[in-house]
Task: structure prediction
Amino acid sequence: MKIIACYSNKGGVGKTATSVNLAHTLALAGKRVLLCDLDPQGASSFYFRIKPSKKLTEASFFKDVEKFTDAIRGSDYENLDILPANMHFRDFDVFLSRMRNSRSRLKKALKAVEQDYDFILLDCPPSISTLSENIFRSADVILVPVIPTTLSQRTFQQLITFFKENDLPEKKLLGFFSMAQSVKSLHNETIEDMQATYKRRFLKTRIPFASSIERMGILREPVVATAPNSVAGKAYQELARELIKRLR
Result:
């Protein structure tokens, strides 16, 4: 089982859209996938039309295997299950800060289902916190969407610095460009600069700024399901292929 965390310390960069489309693409490839929605806003759950389990509190998430597994829901797509978020998840940081060995609690919780899935995707809230540290230590790869702008460039550098200062393995970090617009000179310049600076820390695939991605909120389905041959649909499929190669 591989754990992929789709994470950014900056909001609004396409993190949830990536989580949803990657999960669906991997499931289409015959992989058993669990998409774990860790953001209290529950956007990933919303896209898959899944209602949250109100019984899954912060305590039961980390301590009660039965309630954790009971909260998992099947999606409309073969091989793809969802662990939906609810508003109790906003208290994860406070709860974890009170636990012994808090940095490894998420990995212990996910072990309950490791025999059932080939991939677990974590759709993460945009913050650097105790939960984030759990995510960094649990995941095999932290997939970071970066809009090719100066501000996103700065937040990626902050993340690199955090990993260095906390003895976390930088090799887990894999950035990719999201909402990229080739007609913008700033986007092209930023992409060239960051790829030169970080080299192997960035995947080649770029996810474009596209109306089909924006329409996901209306259709409540992945782009790969509604428009697989669109530019965005093909980009997400290529991102999945490139990611799997890196995980081998």
Remarks:
- The mean pLDDT is 91.
